[in-house]
Write a structure and sequence with these properties.
- By secondary structure, the protein is mainly α.
- It has 2 domains: 42 residues; 236 residues, MetI-like (MetI-like fold), CATH 1.10.3720.
- The chain contains 13 helices and 2 strands, in the order H-H-E-E-H-H-H-H-H-H-H-H-H-H-H.
- A two-stranded antiparallel ribbon has the order 1-2.
- The longest helix has 41 residues.
- The chain starts with a helix and ends with a helix.
Length: 283
């Protein structure tokens, strides 16, 4: 009877696991089914490297939005990655465990805040500060980078804390016994041992940043052009899909699905790199 119950639970869990995989597969099939014919007809070069996005006239070039997405994502990593790693080091190495047990879950609550709230803060607080002190329209690459940098903090901090916490205490004790200071042991021993896990957290945070939609729509300015400075307004790939899918038809709709394919490939590459880094850290 007990074996029968265990088999039922095992089969149920397997069914749930395969249903999640099936959902992902169906999403991928649907996106490629809608967008791949357009890519084959237009050509990757004309679609990816053209700067002319005029759907009503049949021009579909997403190069400005690719560059804008990379600018915003890179800016978010400059804000979020150092701050997240520094926070993880501080929580693991320099505060009592009781403080970390309270602080870490509190930081992770940031992941549960809706992205529209971050966007609202960006519009009301960050954009006016940029406009009054640095110039430009305010809604810009810099504003989007700051907001996304804050949004990816829970991901970077959580994974980095786990990676640093998994380093054996004998590494720290050995460094201290050889005469290293507390910071030297962290910098030269602990961080090197946890490097792969930290890199995985940063890559996953990058995937979150490049896939964010609502906050970016609110704070980036939504101007279809190649940015020349951090104060320029831009439109990212995700924002373009969200803004135009509601009224797009025909080739325009197919072009947006093709944009989704490009975004899907970017995120899959980032997730694969993160998984590889995690496996390396386990070894």
């Amino acid at each position: 009877m007990r074996n029968t119950g265990e088999r039922i639970v095992q089969n149920a869990l397997m069914l749930v696991a395969f249903s999640a995989l099936a959902s992902l597969l169906l999403i991928a099939v649907f996106i490629f089914k809608e967008g791949l014919p357009f890519l084959l007809r237009t050509g990757l070069r004309d679609f990816l490297l053209s700067s002319d996005w005029r759907p009503q006239e049949g021009h579909f070039g997403i190069y400005p939005m690719i560059v804008s997405s990379l600018w915003v994502t890179f800016g978010a990593m400059l804000v979020g990655a150092p701050l997240g790693i520094a926070c993880a080091i501080f929580l693991n190495e320099f505060v009592p465990k009781s403080v970390m047990r309270v602080t870490k879950p509190t930081i992770e609550l940031l992941a549960g805040i809706p992205s529209v709230v971050y966007g609202f803060i960006g519009v009301i607080v960050v954009a006016p500060l940029i406009r009054s002190h640095l110039g430009g329209p305010g809604l810009s690459v810099l504003c989007a980078a700051v907001i996304l940098g804050i949004m990816i903090l829970p991901t970077v901090i959580s994974i980095s804390v786990d990676a640093i916490g998994s380093v054996p205490n004998s590494y720290r004790e050995g460094a201290l016994a050889l005469g290293a200071t507390r910071w030297q042991s962290v910098h030269m021993v602990v961080l090197k041992a946890a490097r792969s896990g930290i890199v995985a957290g940063v890559i996953l945070g990058m995937g979150r940043a490049i896939g964010e939609t609502m906050a970016v729509i609110m704070v980036a300015g939504n101007s279809v052009k190649i940015p020349h400075s951090a104060l320029d307004s831009v439109r990212t790939l995700t924002a373009n899909i969200a803004l135009e899918m509601g009224y797009a038809t025909g080739q325009h709709r197919q072009a947006l699905f093709a944009t989704g394919i490009v975004l899907f490939v970017f995120i899959m590459i980032l997730n694969s790199l993160a998984m590889a880094a995690m496996k390396k850290s386990v070894k």
